Amino acid sequence: MSFYETMTRLEQLPYGMLWNRYTAEDVKRALRAERVDEEGLMALLSPAAEPYLEEMAQKAQRLTRAHFGHVMQLFTPMYLADYCVNHCTYCSFSSIYDFPRKKLTLEEVAREAETIAATGLRHILILTGESRMDSPASYVRDCAEVLRGYFSSVSIEVNPLSTEEYAELRGAGVDGLTLYQEVYHQETYRELHVKGPKRVYRNRLDAPERGCLAGFRSVNIGALLGMYEWRQEALATALHARYLQDKYPECEIGFSIPRFRPYLGEFNPASDVTDRALVQIILAYRLFLPRSGISLSTREPAALRDHLVHLGITKMSAGVSTEVGGHSLEGGTPQFEISDNRSVEEIAGMLRLQGLEPVFKDWDILSEPVCLT
Amino acid sequence: MQDPLMIGGVTLTSRLFIGTGKYSRNTLIPEVIARSGSQVITVALRRVDPQSKENIVSHIPSHMTLLPNTSGARTAEEAVRIARLARSAGLGNWVKIEVINDQKYLLPDNIETIRATEILAAEGFVVLPYMSPDLSAALRLKAAGAAAVMPLGAPIGSNRGLQTKELIRILISETDLPVIVDAGIGRPSEAAEAMEMGAAGVLLNTAIATAKDPLLMAEAFCEAVSAGRKAYLAGLGPVEETAAASSPLTGFLA
Amino acid sequence: MNLTVNGTAQRYEESCRTLADLLARPEWAGKLVIVELNGELAGREAYGDTLLNEGDRVELVHFVGGG
């Protein structure tokens, strides 16, 4: 059993008529339910829910505060390498672009880490492009070992790996995995991923489950919103999260809600995800999985982020650079443009003004994790 | 309305499971079965008493699914032994695992219950474990091969109702096994409430057997379980909250 | 022959040679009896062929009311 089976079923649904079938009563029922089921989730993502965003927001806010408290966890991404063998039509790191590629040495990793740690952050997400030659799992492991000296939590966002490789990284102190499917809709997935190993849809789809099997403490998934009809994509993401959460209750399954941003290339999103739509998606995720974390990146502008902190978000990035070595080195190429350039200190200040406690360090691994291989 | 409950390859149209203990006379049992509409009935296994002429099985119509329990077992091994003895009677392969060490409250021992479930499920039994409503235990029972889980609503025979409601609610939402509330239910309204919450069924004995009129009570429970189930399927109507005059959280979307 | 049946030691006449003979006695007849012979489950199809020996421990159980 894999989530692929659910995905296959979802792709056969007659969405054209399905979304319009939901009524205000269905939305109200979902709002009242103690546990929102698949039907309820669809009602919350449907056009019928649009007039109920405030009611959804009230309940989402209540659930979030009840489960997480008046806090916001902060983290920052750290780009290790931008070598990439894939051609994805929407990404600046795509292999078709000719720009000087970079990969941090372990000394440079330490320097970046020092700069970031000086801001107070203790949770870090490390990223690479996809290149098994230039940034293999062993390289990520070596970097993680350096970073464990500076951070209490190290998560990865790299190309899909095998269960054994994940377990090895877990053994090196990596506690979280972030991996976006990008697009759940299979046909669109194939269109957008023109070349490279990333074309293999299932390898990516099953990777979060491999992460759960390898024992990561948290696994974060997401669809790159805008690539395909957002209601379907949000539905698939939420069901994927529930599939994982039901099957691996020991792992914290979280959502990311990346909305497509302009980048180096000419790609135009297929589905217009307005602020309203983004809010509807966040609220539906929260009502569907009340205990799951939801991360908000600096892809979103500061003013919007300031509002979203009350709608179910539990984690925010701060002090962000999407360039390799962007915190302590010069002259990288950003993966995407960020819209919120505020420093960690500024974000923390904004949160406090809004009555939320910024959390720089949520946990620490006291004993060396057990390597499963 | 077609709404069968499938357990161990058997299709049940009634979601009320009943017991055979504590009746003033066993000849009531066939009529209780008929009035309750039940299709699954529990029995216990004991040494034969040479003085007694009673034979409980003779009161149970053959269309019933017999659910022998392992009452008296204090360890997994004892439960396994009782289950194997019961199966050798040739009346089916269902077993309600009941392992109880605590003689004061008669609360089940989940750890021994999980061990017994593993062994018996591997031997082809349809295993319905009686358990304390604990999520980790329920997930382990599922992994061990249980066909359903049977959490207690309150201590056996106490007629105290759904004291463990919150925990049972969690089991219902987080395990995809049928959850059958066993023990504690004293009134039809409590059975209906369990069913409204999404329980797959309820198992009762004392509440019917010790009623002043067990036959009428059997009928009352039959209707309560069915009403609760229908309410669950129908989806409870929304309790309207007062609408907010402004939109403090989403006003920025304009 | 001396047998311990359900914990009670008793002398049985020589004609009581098999499990089937034992179960035919009036105190057990007419009940759906399950037999454990010296701690081992005895198959019901073989009651007639299962010989009893001096000192055997026999457990006879059956279904009773229970919840």
UniProtKB/TrEMBL annotation, chain A:
<keyword id="KW-0411">Iron-sulfur</keyword>
<dbReference type="Pfam" id="PF04055">
    <property type="entry name" value="Radical_SAM"/>
</dbReference>
<keyword id="KW-0456">Lyase</keyword>
<protein>
    <submittedName>
        <fullName>2-iminoacetate synthase ThiH</fullName>
        <ecNumber>4.1.99.19</ecNumber>
    </submittedName>
</protein>
<dbReference type="GO" id="GO:0036355">
    <property type="term" value="F:2-iminoacetate synthase activity"/>
</dbReference>
<dbReference type="InterPro" id="IPR007197">
    <property type="entry name" value="rSAM"/>
</dbReference>
<dbReference type="Pfam" id="PF06968">
    <property type="entry name" value="BATS"/>
</dbReference>
<keyword id="KW-0479">Metal-binding</keyword>
<dbReference type="InterPro" id="IPR013785">
    <property type="entry name" value="Aldolase_TIM"/>
</dbReference>
<keyword id="KW-0949">S-adenosyl-L-methionine</keyword>
<dbReference type="InterPro" id="IPR012726">
    <property type="entry name" value="ThiH"/>
</dbReference>
<keyword id="KW-0004">4Fe-4S</keyword>
<keyword id="KW-0408">Iron</keyword>
<feature type="domain" description="Radical SAM core">
    <location>
        <begin position="70"/>
        <end position="291"/>
    </location>
</feature>
<dbReference type="InterPro" id="IPR034428">
    <property type="entry name" value="ThiH/NoCL/HydG-like"/>
</dbReference>
From TrEMBL, chain B:
<feature type="active site" description="Schiff-base intermediate with DXP">
    <location>
        <position position="96"/>
    </location>
</feature>
<keyword id="KW-0704">Schiff base</keyword>
<feature type="domain" description="Thiazole synthase ThiG">
    <location>
        <begin position="7"/>
        <end position="248"/>
    </location>
</feature>
<keyword id="KW-0784">Thiamine biosynthesis</keyword>
<dbReference type="Pfam" id="PF05690">
    <property type="entry name" value="ThiG"/>
</dbReference>
<dbReference type="InterPro" id="IPR013785">
    <property type="entry name" value="Aldolase_TIM"/>
</dbReference>
<keyword id="KW-0808">Transferase</keyword>
<keyword id="KW-0963">Cytoplasm</keyword>
<dbReference type="InterPro" id="IPR033983">
    <property type="entry name" value="Thiazole_synthase_ThiG"/>
</dbReference>
<protein>
    <recommendedName>
        <fullName>Thiazole synthase</fullName>
        <ecNumber>2.8.1.10</ecNumber>
    </recommendedName>
</protein>
<feature type="binding site">
    <location>
        <position position="157"/>
    </location>
    <ligand>
        <name>1-deoxy-D-xylulose 5-phosphate</name>
    </ligand>
</feature>
<feature type="binding site">
    <location>
        <begin position="183"/>
        <end position="184"/>
    </location>
    <ligand>
        <name>1-deoxy-D-xylulose 5-phosphate</name>
    </ligand>
</feature>
<comment type="subunit">
    <text>Homotetramer. Forms heterodimers with either ThiH or ThiS.</text>
</comment>
<comment type="similarity">
    <text>Belongs to the ThiG family.</text>
</comment>
<comment type="function">
    <text>Catalyzes the rearrangement of 1-deoxy-D-xylulose 5-phosphate (DXP) to produce the thiazole phosphate moiety of thiamine. Sulfur is provided by the thiocarboxylate moiety of the carrier protein ThiS. In vitro, sulfur can be provided by H(2)S.</text>
</comment>
From TrEMBL, chain C:
<dbReference type="InterPro" id="IPR010035">
    <property type="entry name" value="Thi_S"/>
</dbReference>
<dbReference type="InterPro" id="IPR016155">
    <property type="entry name" value="Mopterin_synth/thiamin_S_b"/>
</dbReference>
<dbReference type="InterPro" id="IPR012675">
    <property type="entry name" value="Beta-grasp_dom_sf"/>
</dbReference>
<dbReference type="InterPro" id="IPR003749">
    <property type="entry name" value="ThiS/MoaD-like"/>
</dbReference>
<protein>
    <submittedName>
        <fullName>Sulfur carrier protein ThiS</fullName>
    </submittedName>
</protein>
<dbReference type="Pfam" id="PF02597">
    <property type="entry name" value="ThiS"/>
</dbReference>
